[in-house]
DNA sequence: GCGGAAAGTGCGGTACTACC
DNA sequence: GGTAGTACCGCACTTTCCGC
């Protein structure tokens, strides 16, 4: 790369980065042009908008109003960067940086006058750019001149829309979309340009706000420009040359001295040097304490060192939204002690300190400044559906984990941990206290704490009492004159040895008749159907006019109320049951929970093991006697729900 | 100044440990 | 096994702080 020496009158090299990247070089002197710096190499003109180079944009944004523009990037040619300052309608190139490390200031570069053009009439770079752009070369980007291009796009858009009104077609529609997209891109580029120039924090003003950025830039430039200075005598200096000399004199006085004498015999070095005290010397080889590490960490300024994500701690603490703070609490301070919570009882002091950290972070309280906590921590720890924030109290989480640990020990007594604890401390079951009431290991203390939580959860808590009461299955009373048929099927394997059974009771719950049948090897559905059929036949033989049939199999209810189908594998017995129901004047069929149908279930289980095909009971058998009395005496039955 | 919440303080009780 | 010391905990009350 050739580099020309600057001459005295070469300060007006300007590159108007308008639509055609017109280069205007108005300098006199030796033969020099941008072409000589590599611009005229084949395929050179590739101009990038500055925003296509984020690294350069961020590199230069905080320190310069100049925009880096990749002016030449070709294989085998030097990569050049020019920095363009704002002009009335474009950019003004100030200097070039090349990959070879050289820097060329265009203010000091000669440009050959047109009269001294080279004899081979080589095309200038701007001519090459213009030709390639006009030929639609996508490699040729545009620099600056957003306003000119905006006007052009808007004019084209107006023309296209006018044509669409007169004669719409698909080409115009697509063209309008393309132009609209291009216009949006220009707006974005313009906004980024002025955001870059205005040096304001675009993270805080990230909206499309070109006018604001533009105004900020102009105001800042006007504010930073020095128009006048006051000299040592207090006189204001306005002239530019006088200002230059004043600044020069000031700095000369600042970094020079008129004192010519100096001390010939300075103090010995050891007297001037700083001394290390004996205590400091002893501490030099001591290990770093946790307190020192904490002090060093907490001494970081909030906006000093950004984290791995590029954001400062101060930004997070000040600008995080409430959901962000909550998420951070849940993912950090609530998650860290989870492991210890699962195997030991955290001291109340530790729990309180963790909660204090969380609520202070939530409301913004720091060591330097206390902030008001608008809502109590207890309310914050409520569920979101109940008006809380969904946060969790550390103590409550600890107890919940320990209850889980206790439950595992009780359920998996063959587990090594359970066997060790039971052998050492004599744990029998959750309702009985341990044989040896001793403190024991931390693990044992955790199990004990979990026992208390389980007892509270499943027995003592008022909410748990309500919960269990809701699970009570009421034995519904029957209307006067109605009889109830409870039928059920039982099987030993599906299919396997199956049996069915049932009973008929009057409106007071008193026993009328019962039955059980050995169905043989059958499925559970077939056993259930046999039970219903036998019950209906028994009711007809007893001349019962009002019968309520209760089954605990919802599938059978669905089969009975489905449209008749001859293709179903159980269609014959289902149709038989339907016909039997028609023989009873008033017959209804309902679903009942298994707990409310336990007497029929017991009779069906008898049917699985009996040798006779069908057994009719005038009196309740001994196996169901107790269950029958419970049904008569109690109004509710606890329901077994798998957890 | 008021209201609300956290933090601090004091007291009593309990559980555990070390020691004799 | 008894005793002293210590740590922990819960409770009640007061103080502090902050926004309005």
From TrEMBL:
UniProt-listed SUPFAM superfamilies: Ribonuclease H-like
GO molecular function: nucleic acid binding; RNA-DNA hybrid ribonuclease activity
RNase H type-1 domain segment(s): 486-605
One Pfam assignment: RVT_3
Location of region: Disordered: 108-127
Classification via PANTHER family: OS05G0353850 PROTEIN, POLYNUCLEOTIDYL TRANSFERASE, RIBONUCLEASE H-LIKE SUPERFAMILY PROTEIN
Protein name according to UniProt: RNase H type-1 domain-containing protein
Species of the source: Fagus sylvatica
